[in-house]
Batch of 2 targets.
Target 1
Amino acid sequence: GAGVSQSPRYKVAKRGQDVALRCDPISGHVSLFWYQQALGQGPEFLTYFQNEAQLDKSGLPSDRFFAERPEGSVSTLKIQRTQQEDSAVYLCASSLRPGGLRTEAFFGQGTRLTVV
Amino acid sequence: DAKTTQPPSMDCAEGRAANLPCNHSTISGNEYVYWYRQIHSQGPQYIIHGLKNNETNEMASLIITEDRKSSTLILPHATLRDTAVYYCIGPGGYGGSQGNLIFGKGTKLSVKP
């Protein structure tokens, strides 16, 4: 497709369940970012990939959060043993160039995760 | 936190120009200012960026003061679909080793009929 695609759009998980969120970036985009957005707040950085390399994971809130991009295209954000505080919208963004988002970045519509 | 200051909310009449201010008093000579917006239930959308010259594209104009300590995003003819949260990202607006965006709280623009 022409844009960044995320799936599922909505996910309801029971507390303690593991979830996997998928991001399909724009083809050929080198940089890929994950953000977490709580209700009423701006997006907050989680992690960054340059191709398949995870160069920055400083924003991941705990070791229950894990992200991968094994072939440098599709990325998966996995959350183990979900907690209620994990409820948020998870946004994926990609950009053409390496070296971060100091350029036009394209965001997906996000996955809304609700932990009950 | 991003070193930008924006009003939390603004109203604008449909068809009129919306002028969204941003203060970035600590900006240095080679730092760009970026604007994104987020319409309800969507991901953020890039609008425009600039260094020191005024910039215009099909979405908006960006006016940067000569001392570069503030800028104004102008939507020349606001429509109801421009209702969104607008984020100004400037100095201190990049974190980590790869320059990830730091969004802050932005300005909630409400365009009213």
Target 2
Amino acid sequence: DQQVKQNSPSLSVQEGRISILNCDYTNSMFDYFLWYKKYPAEGPTFLISISSIKDKNEDGRFTVFLNKSAKHLSLHIVPSQPGDSAVYFCAASAGSGGSNYKLTFGKGTLLTVNP
Amino acid sequence: GAGVSQTPSNKVTEKGKYVELRCDPISGHTALYWYRQSLGQGPEFLIYFQGTGAADDSGLPNDRFFAVRPEGSVSTLKIQRTERGDSAVYLCASSLTVGGWKDTQYFGPGTRLTVL
């Protein structure tokens, strides 16, 4: 059973517009959420994270929003650039359960930013 | 500085053979992780080391899989009697510590294992 779900396998946006990637989770023990970006033939690269005590975290063009009641988070990229084209993975961990090291990943969303 | 490195980058083997996959973590990182990414899936946790000891091996699928980290740095993932279902990208990650507030895991490029 998928505890972290990324229901959109792919997303295509125009350069300069906003990209919104979505993620849902089912495990209420998750208290820390991360987004990783992955280019072909490379390992995932950490992008941004958010703790469950917050509902928003911003880093430059990247903002993550967390809605705990809906068990939903989203990653906003503004403005989108062609170099953002990659697979984006949502991940979660359950620190309060003593396993904050164990990341559970979604299946990923392939973002394509068209020039 | 150097990131996490993994060797080989690709490994093709025959069903039933034994394979070893190597991971060199970032220097000074005490925590090391192995994940497996099957086609169309996200990475799945296999095992976590803190120093030399395997603190959590609950993700290893069965007893054909084993990992070591004898000196607290380099780690080797060992797979015995490989099966076609073992074909995947095996990812290694390391972090500075664990127990600090959410240490970031840095991933290597992975080893693509193909079992024929």
